[in-house]
Amino acid sequence: MSEIAYYGSCPSEEFVKHAFPDSKISFFCYGINVASFMDDRKVTIKTIEDWPEPIKKRLKFEARKGFCDRLKKAAPKTLVIDFSRVTRASLMRYKNTLLTVPYELLEAAPDLQRNAFSILTVIPFGNREFWTLVVDAMQKFCDFIIQDLPETEVILLDAPPTADYRGVLIDNNTYMVDFCRWQMRYPMSRMLIDYCLERISNSRVLTPSLHLYSDDTASYGPAPMHYSESVWREIATQFQARGGFEGLPRSSDLVSTLTNYSGLMDAFTTTALSNRNLQRFSLDILHGALPYLFARISNPAENHFGDPIDSHDVVAAFRWILGREPESALTFLNHYALSNRRELRETLLRSFEFQSQVPLYAK
What we know:
Number of strands: 8
Strand content: 5-15%
Order of helices and strands: EHEHHHEEEHHEHEHEHHHHHHH
Distance between the termini: 82 Å
Strand order of the largest sheet: 2-1-3-7-8
Number of domains: 2
Oligomer: single chain
Number of helices: 15
């Protein structure tokens, strides 16, 4: 009986369940950001004893740390990884330790949230500090796999979102909004997959080559990457038929990637035709965010971290200089990607919009 491990979220758990039904799971880590996974500094959070059990249980489990030691001790034959949680979960700092924000806390009552965030410092998803921590942890994670698990086969799951939901939705807008979010999350996952492929020689990538859809048989509810049970079975069947790990490609398949992006665009266009604002916002994210995120994640330049621009800087600059909000996600990201606050300010001051307002101010 071979030993299997998985790290990530529902895609890795679902894949392992169907692709390795007779194997022993020697290690698993569900729902923890890689930056927290690689932070071994233990901590005791005494102030959460009166919190609801699900939140308290998750935080205490993560605060014990030691994930790398446990994975090393397990020494699995195969490690399955998906980066779903890295690309959607914010981080928190408690004393000197990093923790992942549990979903249960985000859904808690306002009083509990105020109490929680008065003792836990939130590092929002996507800001400069967040990606600095994630990129640093990704490098440490790759080094750990190479040095401590050189014989372990690493399968990186590429789980693209699907707009094809065949179940019953109470709120028809729920799936559309979630799909909009995943338009941005999926390219980030792809970048982290490529990051590992370049560094871990004993790694392969699995990209589903069949029509993806979700329905009420999905184990985790209506989300674009919660595939139907029958889809996961077919993914597992194809994986085994092609020779398992050895049958997977060593590098990204450009054709599959482009097909996924093309399908993503077509599916979203169909799904969001009834709401032009939602469609515009999502297209801005997909087209505007990719080059910027790729630069930040795969090869972060010093100018992104020297005199950093935070998201609130962009909004504040637009409000104070132009008297309005950024008109789109693309505009926001283009200004967020500038080197520093001085360049942000000068860009807006030089803009035609501001220059046309100057004569009015002079009067």
